[in-house]
Design a protein that fits this description.
A hairpin with a 5-residue loop joins strand 3 and strand 4. It is built from eleven helices and ten strands. Helix 5 packs across helix 6. The strands form three sheets. It has a four-stranded antiparallel sheet with strand order 2-1-3-4, with no helix packed on it. Strands 5-6-7 form a three-stranded antiparallel sheet. Strands 8-10-9 form a three-stranded antiparallel sheet. Helices cover 41% and strands 12% of the residues. The chain is an alpha+beta fold and 305 residues long.
């Protein structure tokens, strides 16, 4: 906020109160000096002095280095004040009341930039009650602010047209994942056929080390018939429970029946440790995945209808 010193009586006066000071307290006031920079403003020239140097700049003198301002609000307010100044210049000479009100408006700090708040500010703070005049003030200031803003020019290239690239292929199709969602959103376990004959040194010709660490290996005799087997675990658990009394069964018995159904669907001739580990892991996963369907209480599992 800018503060002036009256050249006649020496009183410190805020910029917004200069008019009142000259009209009621010191009618001999002809010059005003800024209390910060010391510059003297004769007559009405003080109205253009809206901001001044900071205390740090004042006392450091030539050694002062201005910091880059990151206050975007101050920049917007300065631009708005400049729009008011431009509105004063372009105000029609045949409407002195409009020009005089704009000059008074320039003496205030932090003039609102939104239409409703702006009009309320002019009416309440400046005591202007002519709604037509208030609307005219807003229109001319807003028009100058709009002209001062640069036209928006989008940068960058236009949105890329989607193309059929490998990145759009589902991961399951690229990586040969063992899981694929079906139409109902349920995951289906997919067991690939056993690897090809191993070399004498114990490594497969086409085995990926990282994949082998994540997928349990199955013995050659554990599968027969189809090269790929799908088993719907959610449906399998649900079918077994729906046949039980009260739709309730012990977890141990349920596991045994579901794993037996899975082994039958997979065509496994023998159940290896890897096979059982894989099946138990899938069973536990799907049993806990649907708590609203499978109610677990102690060692019992109930199908929620």
């Amino acid at each position: 906020m800018v503060v002036f010193v009256c050249g006649s009586c020496g009183e410190s006066v805020k910029k917004a109160a200069v008019d009142k000071h000259c009209q009621t307290q010191c009618r001999n006031c002809t010059t005003l000096s800024c209390i910060d920079c010391g510059k003297t403003f004769p007559g009405e020239s003080f109205r253009t002095h809206n901001a001044c140097i900071t205390e740090e700049e004042k006392w450091h003198g030539k050694d002062y280095k201005a910091k880059e301002s990151s206050n975007s609000g101050k920049k917007k307010q300065d631009a708005w004040t400049e729009s008011i100044q431009n509105a004063i210049v372009s105000a029609r000479s045949n409407d002195p009341k409009l020009k005089m009100t704009l000059e008074r408006l320039l003496t205030y700090d932090n003039v609102p930039r939104k239409e409703t708040k702006f009009k309320n500010f002019v009416q309440n703070s400046m005591r202007v009650h002519d709604q037509r005049l208030i609307s005219s003030i807003w229109d001319i200031v807003k028009s100058k602010d709009t002209l001062a803003k640069p036209a928006f020019q989008p940068t960058g290239s236009s949105p890329a047209v989607p193309t059929d690239t490998p990145s759009q292929v589902p991961p399951a199709a690229v990586n040969g994942s063992k899981k694929a969602p079906n139409a109902s959103g349920e995951e289906e376990a997919r067991i690939d056929p056993p690897n090809k004959k191993l070399k004498a040194n114990g490594h497969s010709d086409h085995m990926n080390t990282s994949a082998a660490s994540l997928k349990p290996s199955l013995n050659k005799g554990s599968l027969s018939g189809e090269t790929s087997v799908k088993f719907k675990w959610k449906k399998g658990i649900k079918n077994v429970l729906s046949e039980a009394d009260g739709f309730t069964m012990s977890g141990k018995k349920l596991r045994k029946k579901v794993l037996k159904s899975f082994a039958s669907s997979s065509g496994a001739t023998e159940q290896t440790d890897d096979f059982r580990e894989y099946a138990n892991r899938k069973f536990d996963k799907f049993l806990k995945k649907y708590p609203d369907l499978f109610l677990l209480k102690e060692d019992m599992v109930t199908l929620v209808s």
